[in-house]
Fold this protein.
Amino acid sequence: MPRMRWTLDQKKHHVAAWRASGLTREQYCELYDIPFKSLRQWPQDVAKAEKRARAPEIIPVSVSGAPGMADGRPLSDEPVTLFLPGGIRMCCQPSQLTDVFRALRNVPGTSSSQKYSVH
């Protein structure tokens, strides 16, 4: 019989359901026909996936000089304009860039391989 591949969502579901059930791990596995070794490993798999999801990610950007810039860096009180895929422009303060890029990373339908321009 071929080995079943479990998705992360299935693993999360079964780990949560097992913990809430009050059953032993072995009892839960027998009830739902899950290999004991699998359910033993899944809490670690779920924890690793959640840790990776929270980890910082590199977002490629290109920075170009513009009038009002000193040594290629924006003046501290001057807003910067982000040119995003799809023709979207966004202005923000340099101090907000970390939060803006963090939010952009979590936008559905975008990927970290997309390139953003900062002017």
About this structure: The CA atoms of residues 49 and 107 lie 19 Å apart. The chain has two domains: 8-54, 61-118.
